[in-house]
Specification:
The structure is a single chain. By secondary structure, this protein is an alpha/beta fold. The protein has a domain of 205 residues: Rossmann fold (3-Layer(aba) Sandwich), CATH 3.40.50.1460. Helix content is 34%, strand content 15%. The protein contains 18 helices and 15 strands. The strands form four sheets. Strands 10-9-11-12-13-14 form a six-stranded mixed β-sheet, sandwiched between helices. Strand 1 and strand 2 form a beta hairpin. The radius of gyration is 25 Å and the shape is globular. This is Cilia and flagella associated protein 46.
Length: 515
């Protein structure tokens, strides 16, 4: 019968398709909240089907601290839920503004790169800019703040509270005959673990917006803001099924070899800050972080120090003694990967680095990727969305043979969704078009902090998102700008965040570290 055939097909898909497994929601999905680490704060925002209401929820794992009498007292708010009426027209306007910003960013990127190649001044490269100024990112952020204002109190992180034992207040009432000297010692306050990691689980329209720039996410002790597509997928990323894998909140489970590697790699650079891996981090083996595919068509044009192949070679050489000695990849078109090689590269590594022109998925078959199982790939870094005349011509020629749905799957958000479905646990990727100089900046900052300082994926992404505008390399500076200008401090500067800093976002797990 048709029912039995459907059941048979469903069972077969559950056995062979990683994407199907991640799309399936278990009946015990609310139990997934038990897997959330104590330092995580889950923020969920979803619209009703007709988009007239917006539902918001915040969840933190309950925390308990002991009192003087040995009882456990819960501190902090474990869960809050709210519903507010919203305007569908306002949401449509917000999404349209975000899409317009991406289109204008593409035009601006082409204008800047063209000015660099032909030696023009950036002010004169686009004469229409004075007449039609670009939509500013701050305008979109302000409109997003206004749209979410009814829920801002829900989204705001609570101030950390310290519970002090009640016996402190009785110290002055001790009787003279009491010989117990323990009362003279003031017990130390009991501090629950700080909630500094925010995970955003939002619906498709809100993914279009630069949520990482919201004021409520720039306050307090938040050190990481990442995105996820559903609670089920977040659980799938957190849940470690294979024995021997290290998991969040399970210190000591990771194997000894990984910790030995972490100790051996303390000597990245003389005089550098100590490399400290958080005890609850999920470890990614640097020796299995390969290969990398960099500008496979060699389409990048511009100053040599900004070209993807040059930047990557310098990074590989810098960390050769401690991390990148076994990284074997494809730099330039001399070692251009075929479709079969793409699949082999993606299927056999714990980490993958793509650095090149146009969309990442314009380089390989989307249909073949959707059928793959990439659950062994812990981390993927995509520095794409740059453009040159050659890359634009290639994509225009290839798009003639693709349908509209196929082209839509190559967009940044759809790319992240697809990679998450096939098993990739963390994806660092651009949201909108980027200049070669900006991607060179990100490459240096990312690998400096992931490798030299041992920061987690979430903290590295947040570091880039909190860059000061004054500390960024100006678009008008020469490529010979000193390298120390690339080391950016995570501080805020005024209300105007540059589009460069908020471009890179993290999808998936924020607590992975390379060892």
């Amino acid at each position: 019968t048709s029912t039995s055939q459907f059941a048979s097909v469903e069972q077969r898909l559950a056995a062979i398709s990683k994407a199907w497994q991640n799309l399936s929601v278990t009946e015990q999905h609310f139990n997934h909240l038990n897997e959330i680490p104590p330092t995580f704060r889950i923020l969920s925002l979803h619209h009703s089907p007709d988009r007239t209401h917006l539902y918001g929820a915040v969840y933190e794992k309950p925390k308990f601290i002991p009192t003087a009498k040995g009882k456990l007292v819960q501190v902090g708010d474990a869960c809050k839920v709210a519903r507010v009426a919203v305007s569908p027209a306002a949401l449509s306007g917000l999404v349209a503004s975000a899409q317009q910003f991406r289109e204008q960013s593409q035009a601006e990127v082409c204008s800047r790169d063209r000015a660099l190649i032909f030696g023009l001044k950036s002010e004169g490269a686009n004469p229409e800019r004075q007449r039609y100024p670009l939509l500013r990112l701050s305008d979109i952020l302000k409109a997003t703040e206004d749209y979410l204002r009814p829920l801002l109190s829900l989204l705001r992180s609570p101030e950390p509270r310290i519970h002090i034992s009640s016996t402190i207040g009785d110290l002055g009432k001790a009787k003279p005959k009491d010989k117990d000297r323990k009362q003279s010692v003031v017990p130390a306050p009991v501090e629950p673990e700080t909630v500094d990691t925010v995970v955003l689980i939002v619906d498709r329209p809100l993914l279009e917006l630069p949520l990482e720039g919201l004021l409520v996410l720039r306050e307090g002790a938040i050190s990481s803001v990442s995105r996820e597509f559903s609670l089920q997928m977040f659980y799938n990323h957190l849940h470690q099924e294979e024995a021997g894998e290290c998991g969040p909140g399970r210190p000591g489970v990771s194997n000894r070899t990984d910790h030995e590697k972490g100790q051996q790699r303390q000597r990245v650079e003389e005089g550098s800050a100590p490399r400290v891996i958080p005890p609850d981090a999920i470890l990614v083996d640097a020796d299995n972080f390969n290969p990398d595919v960099v500008d496979p068509f060699e389409e990048a044009q511009g100053p040599g120090t900004w070209l993807p192949v040059s930047v990557t070679r310098e990074i590989l050489d810098k960390y050769k003694e401690s991390f990148t000695a076994r990284w074997v990849g494809h730099l330039g078109k001399k070692l251009f990967p075929s479709q079969a090689e793409w699949e082999q590269l993606l299927g056999r590594c714990e980490g993958f680095f793509f650095y090149g022109m146009e969309n990442f998925l314009s380089h390989l078959s989307v249909e073949r990727l959707a059928a793959m199982n990439l659950e062994d790939c812990r981390l993927m870094v995509l520095l794409d969305l740059s453009r040159s005349y050659e890359s634009m011509r290639r994509t225009l020629e290839s798009s003639e043979h693709k349908s509209v749905p196929q082209l839509a799957l190559e967009e940044p958000i759809e790319t992240a969704i697809l990679l998450s479905l096939v098993g990739v646990k963390s994806i660092l990727a651009n949201q909108w078009p980027s200049t070669l100089q900006d991607n060179a900046l990100r490459a240096n900052v990312l690998w400096e902090n992931l490798l030299a300082f041992g920061k987690t994926t979430g903290k590295v992404a947040r570091l880039l998102q909190r860059m000061e505008a004054g500390e960024m390399v100006s678009h008008d500076e020469s490529p010979q700008t000193p390298k120390n200008r690339l080391m950016l401090r995570p501080q805020l500067h005024g209300s105007e965040w540059p589009s460069t800093s908020l471009n890179l976002v993290l999808y998936g797990l924020p607590n992975q570290a390379i060892v």
